[in-house]
Amino acid sequence: MDTRPAVQHRRPPVPPYFDDLIDAYRRGDTNRSVHLGYWHDGDDGDFAGAQARLDQLMIELAEIHAGQSVLDVGCGFGGTIANINHACRRMRLAGINIDPRQIDICRRIASSADNRVTWQLADAVRLPFVDASFDRVLCVEAMFHFASRRQFFTEAARVLKPGGVMAGTDILISPAARSAPFAIDAILQAGFGPWPDVWGEDADHAALTGLSGEVRDITAEVAPSYRYTAPPDAEPGNVSAPAPLRASAALRWLQDRGWLQYVCFRFERPHETGAPR
């Protein structure tokens, strides 16, 4: 834990669609996953299974295994950490989120085996950890909400140990969508905001991290998810619809027109010169 004096700052707002997700979770209508899914062969009707496959993709991409320390930034309801907690031993697992309601849900996850699991209220662009704290840093479908992708990547690289890996997913909107018959940016901000960089003007992930790695386009594998997050009759141009529903419909509309890209990434912090690998 960082022992430097805390700097007071205003916590960013929580995206409004989480109000409905939290209510659904408390009713037992949804699981701990709050991200989209990964589909192998199109829509097989199992959204929860597709969400679990996206978590598994992250675990494989980051090469997570027993004995590591792992930080999940923007941890949602703790689903990704819960899967790692179940699969691996001797882990130090941490999740951060800006929403105390989500952290409260996460804290109901008990540590398994000889793992240690902790949760903390914190901002992704001001990580409350000392340098070189974690073997792995994850960020699944959350960074488009952050005040700055650049600052998040700077912080993630800072808390990674030499040889450590950061992995995650992100959503990018094509500037071509500016030609839509409705204000896409305003719709996304109203339902899914904060979304500071809707047009991806600062989203060259490789340049932002300054680390070596890869960015992979998995738009096609994620695409069936929008059939579950936005009803077929939901339209982004319907001004009377609730803001989160209208924003969900906007993402589906963008996906259908090829103006939405869903990527996963993996970057590695170099080992220190002369240090043992």
Task: Provide the gyration radius in Å.
Answer: 18 Å
The CATH top-level class label: Alpha Beta
Number of E-type strands: 7
Strand content: 15-25%
The average pLDDT value, as a whole number, equals: 92
Structural class: alpha/beta
CATH superfamily: Vaccinia Virus protein VP39
Q: Assign an overall shape.
A: globular
CATH fold type: Rossmann fold
Succession of helices and strands: HHEHEHEEHEHHEHHHE
Main sheet record: 7 strands, mixed
Span between N and C termini?
A: 25 Å
H/I helix tally: 10
- Second CATH tier, the architecture: 3-Layer(aba) Sandwich
The helix content, as a percent range, equals 25-40%
| Count of folded domains | 1
What does this structure look like?
The structure is a single chain. By secondary structure, the protein is of the alpha/beta class. The chain has one domain: 3-Layer(aba) Sandwich (Rossmann fold), CATH 3.40.50.150. It contains 10 helices and 7 strands. The chain has a 7-stranded mixed sheet with strand order 3-2-1-4-5-7-6. Helix 4 (100-106) links the parallel strand 2 and strand 3 (116-121). Helix 2 (47-61) crosses helix 3 (79-87) and helix 6 packs across helix 10. It starts with 16 loop residues before the first helix and ends in a 9-residue tail after the last strand. Residues 3-8 have low confidence and may be disordered.
